[in-house]
Amino acid sequence: MLRSTLRFALRSLWRRPGTSLVHAGGLAVGIACCFLALLYVQDERSTDRFHEHAEQIVTVQQQFMYGDMPVQIQTATPEAVEALRTQAPGVEAVAVTDVTTGFVRSESGRAGIALDAVRFADPAFFDVFTFPLAAGDVATALAAPGQAVLTETLARSLFGRTDVIGEDVFVERTGFGVPDPEPLALTVTAVAEDPPEASSLPFEMLVSGSTPVASFDGPAPALDSSKPTFVRLASLADTMNARAAMQALRSDGDEATFSFLPLVDVHFSGSSDSMTGRATYLILFS
Questions:
Q1: Quick check: pTM over 0.90?
Q2: CA distance 214 to 178
Q3: Could you point out which of 1, 14, 159, 231 has its C-alpha 20 to 30 Å from the C-alpha of 272?
């Protein structure tokens, strides 16, 4: 049976080589397109899933009315963060973080390196997320004002090496907000492995959230206001307890409500103009 089938295929190829080539080429192109679509889907679905507790991490969302328009933002007030940490059963860790752009230099007066992701973070950042350190201690890396964690790539760019704990760096923020009168003087306390590309929380440098920065009301800790907040739960069933703890803070007439968005869905929650982060494309290619 196999011999006769092979003989028939060879005879057809010999008699109609052009048609056979078109068929074989079309099949090859179709298989290649399928593989490319599957790679795209796999890459999109892998975002943020490298964290050890990825399925238990959620971000806080606030919903409120701005005039007649409903608004939803991924931030939490300091009071809500404190309620999550002290009054919500099932909450294992709460991390507050914010990101800006800036210039960093190894010596005052030297030309700076432009950074797209200078991320302020509190000490619980490493309790919620899995970003391994190449050097340093996660318990103390962001514990005090004026501390910085560099990625290995940034450490090499600034100093030509990665053993840079104890070195000083100077950061000039360039993102939205009140400019600092002087660059932030920081001490390197740890070096992190470069974050995976499949992360919705990129950073080239972490800065302790208690570091004072300029604000409209004068110097204040960088995370001393409503900022993006992430919660690691014992299980997703504990979201009800966490939500109740924050809702209890509402005053009379306050129409703001809280909800949670799983970390693994954050990548698809924005309005992207590219092929990434678009749930519609993910469904289409699937």
A1: no
A2: 6
A3: 231
